[in-house]
Amino acid sequence: MTESPQEDEARATGGTSWFVLALAWIGVGVPMLWGVWMTLKKAALLFR
Amino acid sequence: MPGLLSRERIIAGPGFNRWLVPPAALAMHLSIGMAYGLSVFWRPLSQTIGITQPAPEDWKVSTVSLTFSIAIFFLGSSAAVFGRWMERVGPRKAGVAAACCWGGGFLVAAVGARTHQIWLIWLGLGVIGGCGLGLGYISPVSTLIKWFPDRRGLATGMAIMGFGGGAMIGAPLGDRLMRHFASPTSVGVWQTFVVLGVIYFIAMMAGAFGYRIPRPDWKPEGWRPKVEARSMVTSRNVHLDQAWKLPQFWALWGVLCLNVSAGIGVLGMASPLIQEMFGGKLIGVPATLAQLTAEQKLDVASIAAGFTGLLSLANIIGRLGWASLSDLIGRKRTYMIFFALGAVMYALVPTAGRLGLLPVFVIIFVIILTMYGGGFSTIPAYLADIFGTQFVGAIHGRLLTAWSVAGLLGPGLVNYIREFQLDRGVAPADAYNVTMYVLAALLVVGFLCNLAVRPVEPKYYLGDHESGAGAAGSMAGKGAQ
Question: Helix or strand or coil: residue B473?
Fold first, then answer.
């Protein structure tokens, strides 16, 4: 049975490894944590 | 074969993990969130000729900072205009367009800074960049809502939190890059624009290519919509052309506009506000701001910068926290809390200032700013509850015109009332009191707008054969989780 190109494509984009998931979250998480740290350092002056 | 950027190309296949979509959305929103951090460039841009101090030919800070207003105006306008297109072509194409506009906008602005042509800065970061902001802002929202029907607030909160957090990364990064590129003949701005433009282009392209949409009939495993129990949540859809003509749309427009007006008004004035209200008390000196020495004023300004940073954090935390809470208590109740609690908080500010209660003052503003952020991130889920998910991206785009209006209304009100008070001879420490009561009144009006939000009458919903026609194709694989 022949599958449509869309079905092929859907199959190709499916399946997510935990490695990819972790990598994606680290990719956005690390810059965010750096930004939070920089902001907290600045905000600490308020409580000196 | 569908094109690389087409909607059909990104329908998720079997085994796709929906938790991969929020980081893609965050990559987009963290990049465009730098819009809030552009102010780090205004002073250096006002010294591109004089280098160490402004020369007569240099631009004024007010001239370059106009870029931000242009960008916000084009954010709202482009979201409204291109929302329908985005729903048709899918989020990836919209995300790629956003990356080209925002990254390219920085490059155009770099040419403007290098050749000292202000119109190129306005065109690059204001007009082209502003369109990138609008497209980038709405591109993941509809997708996230479709992937997380069980946690719409959490999903949109995660993405929109990125918009609030973008400046936290971009502003210190921009500052460091300018220091790196600074030389006796350059303030280092145009080089910084080039580097940031490239970084943001790559990050946003990564985000756009990370977008996946579920097939129309996909639902999280074991999840059943609870439409009977919560009449404010529909499982049907209202067409974009119909939605914006309904009173519910305009009530929600008012909800967003008034919530944002109040928050953006104080956010823009946070630094002078705390300095003028508390003056020397911030550094343990019993004196007003005007009575302090130049050195003491610098210390006070540093503390005020810390206060502004804290408010940015509150804004971000609120975006995630309140939107997630709205999944549990409902959107309408969440906005009831924003408006009722917000009005009380604003009304308490003058008393906290008069009594010199700095910790109370700080706590009040932290709470206010969490609700400001929460207002942004909860509204897409509110729209999806009322109008359905099919056109929510485009409807959200049109609703963002409320942000453009609020961007003028809020700061305008705060500045105008402050100036008016000062002209009448009111002491600077008391010049914000009336403003706070006016902002509290705005929130009372917002409360009434929210009360007016009712479920849409059934006659306005699309029929079953129309609903889903414009949604993702029906050829997706099965079993996405």
Answer: coil
Beta-carbon separation of B27 and A28 below 8 A: yes
Q: What is the pLDDT of residues B182-238, one digit of tens each?
A: 999 999 999 999 999 999 999 999 999 999 999 888 888 888 877 554 578 888 899
| Per-residue pLDDT reduced to its tens digit, B394-434 | 999 999 999 888 988 888 888 888 888 888 988 888 888 89
- Rounded to the nearest angstrom, the gap between the alpha carbon of residue B313 and the centroid of all alpha carbons in its chain is 13
Query: Which value does ipTM take for this structure?
Result: 0.83
Nearest to B1 among A5, A34, A40 (CB): A5
- Nearest by CB to A39, which of B302, B309, B475? B309
Whether B168 has its CB under 8 Å from any CB of chain A: the answer is: yes
CB B280 within 8 A of CB B296: yes
Residue B11 near residue A15 (C-beta atoms within 8 A) = no
Nearest to A32 among B13, B30, B362 (CB): B30
Q: Which of A13-22, B44-53, B115-124 has the highest mean pLDDT?
A: B115-124
| Cα of B326 vs its chain's centroid, Å | 18
Mutate to test the interface with B, among A18, A30, A32 (most CBs of B within 10 A): A32
Closest by Cα among B189, B147, B173 to B31: B173
Residue from the list B8, B24, B168 with its beta carbon closest to the beta carbon of A6: B8
Query: Which DSSP string do the residues of B258-288 spell out, in sequence order?
Result: HHHHHHHHHHHHHHHHHHHHHGGGGGT--S-
Chain A CB contacts of B206 below 8 Å: 27
Q: With contacts defined as CB-CB under 8 Å, which chain A residues touch B162?
A: 28, 32
Inform me whether the pLDDT recorded for B468 exceeds 80.
no
Contact in structure between B189 and B47 (CB atoms under 8 Å) = no
Residue to substitute from B26, B199, B205, B283, interface A, most A β-carbons within 10 A: B26
Report all structural domains of chain B as residue ranges with CATH numbers, in order of start: 1-225+473-481 (1.20.1250.20), 237-462 (1.20.1250.20)
Length of chain B: 481
Helix B21-32 and helix B129-138: axis angle, to 10°?
160
Residue ranges of chain A whose CB lies within 8 Å of a chain B CB: 4-7, 9-16, 20-21, 24-25, 27-28, 31-32, 34-36, 38-40, 42-46, 48
What residues of chain B lie within 8 A of the CB of A8, using their CB?
none
Q: At what angle do helices B61-89 and B129-138 cross, to 10 degrees?
A: 40
pLDDT in tens, B64-109: 988 988 998 899 999 999 999 998 999 999 999 999 999 999 999 9
Q: B183 in helix, strand or coil?
A: strand
Q: Which of residues 371-400 of B touch A (CB under 8 A)?
A: none
Q: Is there a contact between A14 and B12 if contact means CB atoms under 8 Å apart?
A: yes
Closest-CA residue to B155 (of B395, B323, B31): B323
Q: Say which residue the tokens 């909800």 belong to.
A: B255
Give the span between the Cα atoms of B476 and B97, in whole angstroms: 25
